[in-house]
Amino acid sequence: QLQLVESGGGLVQPGGSLRLSCVVSGFPLDRYAIGWFRQAPEKEREGVSCISNRGTTTYWDDSDKGRFTLSRDNAKNTVYLQMNGLKPEDTAVYYCAADQWGDPPCAVVATSYHDWGQGTQVTVSS
Q1: What contacts 123, CB < 8 A, 6 or more positions away?
Q2: Would you tell me how many other CB atoms lie within 10 Å of the CB of residue 23?
Q3: Full DSSP string of 58-104
Q4: Cα 39 from Cα 108, distance rounded (Å)
Q5: What is the pLDDT along the chain (126 residues), one digit of tens a residue?
Q6: Which H helix or E strand runs over 111?
Q7: Which of 68, 95, 112, 118 would suit a FRET pair with 57, their CA atoms being 20 to 30 Å apart?
């Protein structure tokens, strides 16, 4: 059974940084694409970014490039989302999810992902 566990969320000031982790168990990480999504209260879930089994990345919003960086450490079965220059509008619960079709390019589309973590809260506020 594939399981995903997010961690690393918290409260940060605008302009601050967080690194979220997604630890995958049950299958080798290199088989899957991993997507990051977020959902704020009373809003639709939206895509953030994804990383393919080959390490290529796709971003929902090109403006996030440079602020958000995805990486994967297959030996540790972990995907990281480094977030810099955080803004209040980044506040949300962040979820990682696995797509068994891991070949590039990955898609930041929620319906493409079959297994989800429980989420980690990111709050950006002064």
Answers
A1: 9, 10, 11, 12, 91
A2: 16
A3: EESSGGGBTTEEEEEEGGGTEEEEEE-S--GGG-EEEEEEEES--SS
A4: 14
A5: 899 999 999 999 999 999 999 999 998 888 899 999 999 999 999 999 999 999 999 998 877 778 999 999 989 999 999 999 999 999 999 999 999 999 999 999 999 999 999 999 999 999
A6: none
A7: 118
| Rounded-to-5 percentages of helix, strand, coil across the chain | 10, 50, 40
Return phi, psi of residue 98, to 5°: -115, 135
Spatial separation of the C-alpha atoms in residues 48 and 108, rounded to whole Å: 7
Dist CA 102 CA 104 (whole Å):
6
Q: Which whole-number Å values give the CA distances from 114 to 3, 4, 9, 43, in the listed order?
A: 11, 11, 23, 21
d(CA 51, CA 74): 12
DSSP letter assigned to residue 105: S
What does the block give as tokens for 122?
């990111």
